[in-house]
Amino acid sequence: MENNYNKKKQFIVNTIYVLLIVIMVYLFLKYAFSLASPFIFAFFIAYLLNKPAERISQSTKLPHKLVSFFLVLIFYGTVGILVSFIGIRFVSRVAKIISLIPSIYDKQLVPFLITTFDRIEDTIYNIDPAIVGIISEGFNQFVRSLGEHITNFSLALLGSLSNIASSLPGFFIRVLLMIISTFFIAIDFEALSSFVKRQFSQKGNEIIDNIREYMVNTLFVVIRSYGLIMLITFIELSIGLSIIGIPNAVLIGFLIAIFDILPVLGTGGIMIPWTIMTFIQRDFKTGIGLLLLYIFVTVMRNILEPKIVGGQLGLHPVITLMSMFVGAKLLGVVGLFGFPIILSLLRHLNHTGVIKIFK
């Protein structure tokens, strides 16, 4: 009897302990992560570069601090060149597409609507000619209103690009803080690590090392999982676009598969506007093909993502799906990826005996 009481007591204590940790993590991600993010990313990058720096230092007999400095310099130089090249091309293309929206409306959408309305008008005229005038006036108002909305929409999108540009100074300050912090952390990584370890007991350091090792491995597992999802999406799109008869199907499939990784936009960010444009251009065969392909890719993504990610993290697909949904609702993109990882960490700590919640 006393043994059962102790087990229940231990379960309650562990549950409260885990809940407190979850609440603290949530509050940190919700309110403090944005402020601390430059230093968190700086530490993570310095951690990733520390092992290569050690190996290069040992093989070349160069000072570790000097090697770390040049590795950080090479890393940020490479990332800066890639981001600048891709970012400039992406922004210029998006701005060009947005500026073409009113022209597309006038030259393609309006003729399509007029042709469609003429057919409807002929049909209604044969039924009741008196209604044609009312419908014609309503249609003209609809076209004018739609044109105004599309113009306002493109202006709003261009305004959004301007707002993004105005927020760049703050973003660059964060990036600058991250870069400077990375240099300092990478150069004195061992000293900083030793200082942090001295603040905990031996048992505490063992738990921290356990969590650190598991989180690093889990991060690479998540990257590998989404890499597999991207590969599957790429294969589906390449085959589907080839069947539809789209030129450069493999290249387009690759670009859409990369775009599909973005949680907010996904495949629909390209496939839906593309499908609408083909219908407006009266290419119904291609439009139906693109629509069916989009539905297929989306359904397969929603089925495979929880299964692949959950399988790699050791979680049931339903639990993975629930954690992704709750995380996205609470913390957006960070929660979408972060909640399954946190659940996987709790499962690991329970399995290794650090905490005892689940049987």
Keywords:
359 residues, mainly alpha, 11 helices, 0% strand
Structure write-up:
By secondary structure, this protein is mainly alpha-helical. The protein folds into two domains: 1-201, no CATH class; 210-359, no CATH class. It is built from eleven helices and no strands. It is globular and about 90 Å long.
Would you spell out the secondary-structure blueprint of this structure?
Layout: H1 2-60, H2 64-127, H3 130-166, H4 168-187, H5 189-198, H6 202-244, H7 249-260, H8 268-280, H9 284-313, H10 317-331, H11 333-351
Helix pairs in contact: 1-2, 1-4, 2-3, 2-4, 6-7, 6-9, 6-11, 8-9, 9-10, 10-11
Which class do the helix and strand fractions yield?
Answer: mainly alpha
Morphology call: globular
Q: Helical region count?
A: 11
Backbone CA Rg: 28 Å
- How many domain units? 2
Please give the alpha-carbon distance between the first and last residues: 19 Å
Estimated helix fraction = over 70%
Query: Unreliable runs, pLDDT <50, ≥5 residues?
Result: none
- The helix-strand sequence is HHHHHHHHHHH
Total beta-strand segments: 0
The largest β sheet comes out as: none
The amount of beta strand, in percent, is under 5%
Mean pLDDT: 77
